[in-house]
């Protein structure tokens, strides 16, 4: 069974995309804490952050800084 995030990545659930590349997808939160609240997720599925490769963790923080 797919997660909500996997369905968003696959286009099965609509999202207001802010950024997308081969590794990441950034989109506006449907329940924002603050105007422009954006979620940045990897396209590869990991249950726990510590399961993700160090390079991906580095890249997502760099991308978050850019966005």
Keywords:
67 residues; alpha+beta; 3-stranded antiparallel sheet; 3 strands
| Low-pLDDT residue intervals, each spanning 5 or more residues | none
Q: What average pLDDT do the residues reach?
A: 96
Cross-sheet strand order for the largest sheet:
1-2-3
The biggest beta sheet is recorded as: 3 strands, antiparallel
Succession of helices and strands: HEEEH
Q: Work out the strand percent.
A: 15-25%
Number of helices: 2
Secondary structure: helix percent: 25-40%
Oligomer: single chain
Output the radius of gyration: 12 Å
Distance between the termini: 30 Å
**SS elements, strand count:** 3
Which descriptor suits the 3D outline? globular
Q: Which class of secondary structure composition applies to the elements?
A: alpha+beta
Written description of the protein model:
The chain is α+β, with helices and mostly antiparallel strands and about 70 residues long. The chain is built from two helices and three strands; from the N terminus they run H-E-E-E-H. The protein has a three-stranded antiparallel beta sheet, covered by helices on one side. The longest helix is centred in the last third of the chain and has 13 residues. The mean pLDDT is about 95.
